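Can you give me the bound-state structure? Components:
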Amino acid sequence: MSIARTLKMTAPTHTVLEGGGFPVRRPTAMGRLMSPFLLLDEMGPVHWDPGQAIGAPAHPHRGFETVTYMIQGAMKHEDSAGNKGDLNSGDVQWMTAGRGIIHSELPQDDFLKQGGVSHGFQIWVNLPAKDKMMLPRYQDIQAKDIPKVTSEDGKVWANVIAGSTLGVQAVIDTVIPITYIHMKIQQNGVHQQMIDSGLNGMIYVFGGTVYVDGKPVHDGQLGILNDGDVVKLEARDDDAEFLILAGPELNEPIARYGPFVMNTREEIQQALLDYQNGTLA
Ligand code: FE2
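Here's the bound-state model for the whole set.
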């Protein structure tokens, strides 16, 4: 017998300026409720005039992962471990900062020159204490290598970044079990998503309205799910577009200061010291 996941609560988003000043939509409920996710930023959609696009110049990270998924636009990434890559529409960069990395995320030169629409997500995934100081790891996956699947009736489409849906498994390797799926459901379409019981599950809607076990979650809302092992997702009067996110409750103390996320204040002070001394990365 499977147990249906119902909607525990919805959290609204607010718009803030991040990095060099680009607008992001961010759910107001964070922390424990979203574990193991530390942050969920919808970047844009924003239209940049020629010469105006901005990003986040060199900055440090320690103790977690940053996952960037571009839906539209053109960014370039570079880090202190020698990794370098372009992020075009549909590409994912899964960056495990581990013990430390200096990271730069900027618009590509041509995009900056010509302007255009930029839209995507950056999600921070926490690492368990035992993995916080792991060696940095970088997975740069192009859109063509990310599995996509459409349901038999054609009403459900998914881009499988992590985890699995509709019988399709992601290619990205995650440190802890993570589900990260970009899904679209056409009007009157229904999808039953398995999410292992015990994991925290949530739905972030960025187009239309998704009915979660019959309860609406609107554009710009984060729906937090109760426990269970399957969630019924449904579009009714319009098409819906959203992310499905799930992962384990880490149940460890969080000490957070800007781009460092550790377990204790002492570890944060050490990270700051290492950054100042040039030994972070
Ligand atoms: Fe970063």
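A couple of observations. The pocket of fe (ii) ion is lined by residues 56, 59, 61, 66, 103, 105 (CB under 6 Å). Residues 186 and 239 are 4 Å apart (CA to CA).
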